[in-house]
Amino acid sequence: MREYQLKPVERQHSARPELSVFLPVFNEEENLNLLNARLTEALEQLRRTYEIIYVDDGSTDGSLAILRQLAADNAGIRVIALRRNYGQTAAMSAGIDHARGQILIPMDADLQNDPVDIARLLKKLNEGYDVVSGWRKDRKDKMITRRVPSMLANRLISAISGVHLHDYGCSLKAYRREALADVRLYGEMHRFIPIYATWAGAKVAELPVTHHPRHAGKSKYGLSRSLKVLFDLITIKFMATYWTKPLYLFGAAGLLCLAISFFALVGALYYRFVLDVHLNRMPLATLAMVMFGMGIQFIFMGLIAEMVVRTYHESQDKPTYLVREKINLEDDAGEP
Ligand code: UDP
Ligand code: MG
């Protein structure tokens, strides 16, 4: 192919590169230079056009200054600085929105993922997949606070989503651009992209990748993350099933409560008038009233949810983050 004869810098200028590697960065000053050197070296060996997008997620250390320097030295390196710390998922959304490549590759900026694995991911993608998800088979993180909860979460996600992977949380993945069309991310949801993609008809594969211990800087997460992941899982399952018709779920719960209320009422009347038990000595009457109230509540909640869903679909798209500054990015690249 023609690009292969161009010199590296010229190749990197290409407006629509083949590969977009994007990395969320939050206080990674000790890692960035080495990371960038390793990443660039690995990408150069692929002999494909590429861009590297660093999304600075409101770092409070010297990360942004280092990124500025890297971008000044190399036009193939782009930087998006978010206004504050929005979290890894929002930073990844920013990366996805600004990526111009045909293949999108997210990665952590702390050297726990190995850039050398990109070649293998691409090879697997070429076997006819739309998404190749990294699997940290030999994960180098803390056992009790990270690996055990993660293992349980992975099993649960696999069972509930019906998309069977070993490691949803691994950042290093490769996506064909089409597989990410329309994906919007909230909370900790970047790990669910392969699930969304599968639901949208993509072919997903998993590939074991190298995982290094963190040598510099600190991990930003602990046990509380698993809880967030659990709530996100409930949300996506709910969305996937009832997103366009929430009243089906709330209405069913409401009718169930009303039915219980009805039978409790019949029971209460039977005890009162046939067996002549006084009403205030009977839990059934209370049950009938509580269930009646809950049933009506559920139905109204469902109707409110229907309104919310319509507002969502019919109103303007709003990004989940605000950009402070863009470096080496033309305006036509994506979101304003
Ligand atoms: N990160 C981010 N915003 C945050 C937290 C983390 O952009 O609020 C980045 C971080 O710089 C790293 C990646 O997300 O590149 C993964 O974070 P970390 O290494 O702390 O997670 P772990 O590997 O411990 O799961
Ligand atoms: Mg890490």
Q: What's the count of strands? A: 8
- Run of helices and strands: HEHEHEHEHEHEHEHHHE
* Main β sheet profile: 8 strands, mixed
| Radius of gyration over C-alpha positions, nearest whole angstrom | 25 Å
Q: Write out the CATH superfamily name of one domain.
A: Spore Coat Polysaccharide Biosynthesis Protein SpsA, Chain A
Q: State the CATH architecture of one domain.
A: Alpha-Beta Complex
At the fold tier of CATH, the topology name of one domain is Spore Coat Polysaccharide Biosynthesis Protein SpsA, Chain A
Which distinct ligands sit in these coordinates? uridine-5'-diphosphate, magnesium ion
Strand content: 5-15%
Overall geometry comes to elongated
In round numbers, the mean pLDDT is 88
Judged by helices, strands and strand pairing, the structural class is alpha/beta
Q: What count of helical segments does DSSP give?
A: 10
- Unreliable runs, pLDDT <50, ≥5 residues? 1-13
Q: Helix amount, in percent? A: 40-55%
Distance between the termini: 33 Å
Going across the major beta sheet, what is the strand order?
Answer: 7-5-6-4-1-2-3-8
Under CATH at level 1, the class of one domain stands as Alpha Beta
